[in-house]
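Reviewers of the previous submission asked for a worked example of the structure-prediction workflow described in the proposal, so we include one complete record here. The input consisted solely of the amino acid sequence. No template or homolog information was supplied to the procedure at any stage.
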Amino acid sequence: MPDPRSEIVRRIRAGRSFLVAAHASPDGDALGSTAAMGFILEALGKTFWLINDSPAPPQYGWLELPAPLLDRPPCDDYDLAIVLDCGDAPRLGGLDGHLDPARTAVIDHHLGNPGFGAVNWIDPASGATGEMVALLAKDLGVPLVGPIAEALYTAMATDTGFFSFSGTTAVCLELVAEMIRGGLNVGEVGARIKNQWSMNRIRLWSEVLGSLSLHGHGQVGAIRVSQKMFSRTGTGPEDCEGLINNALRIKGVQAAVLVRELPEGGVKFSLRSVGPVNIQQVAAAFGGGGHKNASGGKLETPLDEAEATLIKALTKVVEPARG
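From that input alone, the workflow returned the following structure tokens.
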């Protein structure tokens, strides 16, 4: 049995038509990987469709896509669905159940991915799914230049905190070096990624960070975002990207939680940590998942209760590290 990476390469070479999907509410890694995979298929002369249950976030409106981003497969006539950066099938949102598992290849770097395709290349050691897509491009003989490079850089840079998170790999940096030699202007692309804020987002962050609280002897930072905050500032969930990392900037904070109230009830939570503090196990205990230092999930409880529950769980995790 060939390894999953080789099998995906084989199926791409042999196939003629493809779906490319990623998790709903795509972040930089999901959208960048989707765009890059589309450009790879285009370079190979394949027929393909890009699909996602959610539209592209406004802050990535500048990112060039090789095809429109559809909300459903246009037809059932495809050889392979390539699902990117998706920790499990439910994260596909409304696309879950619309893809044939027997014709699905999963490419992902999240811990705990159950492997819901016929071929599953799951590599938690990779810094980003974009890193894995870049390796596929090289396997397929597609140069990492032009729009492919910009999409891959967006994927890798955003998922590694611009190459500052502990998950950043040597392979990731070597791929970026190759793209720079091929003409990638990291200054231009980096500015497009970072400089997309609105005044409303500034107002949201000002209000939210003003209520940040510390717990567990100052080792746990907690941030909460209510629907009223969104309403007051004219913002939405997309304006919360990167917000949680500010809690980790406080001296002594080893883990952080962000709880975001959902309009239908319950909360979406994000967890972050530094060093040896493993918050993936905390997320998993509440039905979520992710990485050792970056995880998340949902809770069907009110905002106050969810925040208290997660703070208590994080405090237990950081105490051994402190001791």
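Residues 110 and 290 are 5 Å apart (CA to CA). We consider this example representative of the routine output the project will generate in years two and three.
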